[in-house]
């Protein structure tokens, strides 16, 4: 089954790609690897903002991480044309804006990780980091980047 068919079966519609907020490209392909820049959580056209442990609940943050994962897929598709070229999600890097005593970063980033496994099956299982930080660009609650192995179309 193609990834497009899988997305449709799952009822997943990828968002419109977001332009870069600074001096970088959303995706850099080098050899058989695609490096996807950190993506912010757009839900209903707005960035989910706030700080875990202060004013963002865990469930909202998990959904925000999933939204980051959706934007990763949208950016990747815009760059390479077809998500069927994905051979493996190699690594996700997750960043969670949180208070110093918040310790559930790993649960938050599961939102993106679970999406990759849902869409790609075994090829979506990956290495990962989930890191707490004091702030993120534009006050985002979560940011996720990715390294993805590609094959030919």
Automatic annotation (TrEMBL):
User: What range(s) does the Endoribonuclease L-PSP/chorismate mutase-like domain occupy?
Assistant: 4-140
Transmembrane ranges, per UniProt, are none
Q: Which domain of life is it from?
A: Bacteria
What the entry lists under Gene3D superfamilies is as follows: RutC-like
Q: What is the name listed in the Swiss-Prot or TrEMBL entry for this protein?
A: RidA family protein
The record's InterPro entries line, in alphabetical order, gives: Endoribo_LPSP/chorism_mut-like, RutC-like_sf
Q: Per its UniProt record, what CDD domains does this chain match?
A: YjgF_YER057c_UK114_like_1
Lineage at the top is: Bacteria, Pseudomonadati, Pseudomonadota, Alphaproteobacteria, Sphingomonadales
């Amino acid at each position: 089954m193609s990834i497009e068919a899988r997305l449709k079966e799952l009822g997943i519609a990828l968002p419109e790609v977001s332009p870069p907020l600074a001096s970088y490209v959303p995706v850099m392909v080098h050899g058989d690897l695609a490096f996807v820049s950190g993506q912010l959580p757009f839900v209903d056209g707005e960035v989910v903002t706030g700080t875990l442990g202060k004013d963002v609940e865990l469930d909202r943050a998990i959904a925000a991480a999933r939204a980051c994962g959706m934007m990763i897929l949208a950016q990747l598709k815009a760059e390479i044309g077809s998500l069927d070229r994905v051979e493996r999600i190699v690594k996700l890097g997750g960043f969670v804006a949180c208070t110093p005593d918040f310790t559930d970063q790993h649960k938050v980033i599961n939102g993106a990780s679970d999406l990759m496994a849902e869409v790609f099956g075994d090829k979506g299982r990956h290495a990962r980091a989930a890191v707490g930080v004091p702030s993120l660009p534009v006050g985002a609650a979560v940011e996720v980047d990715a390294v993805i192995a590609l094959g030919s179309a």
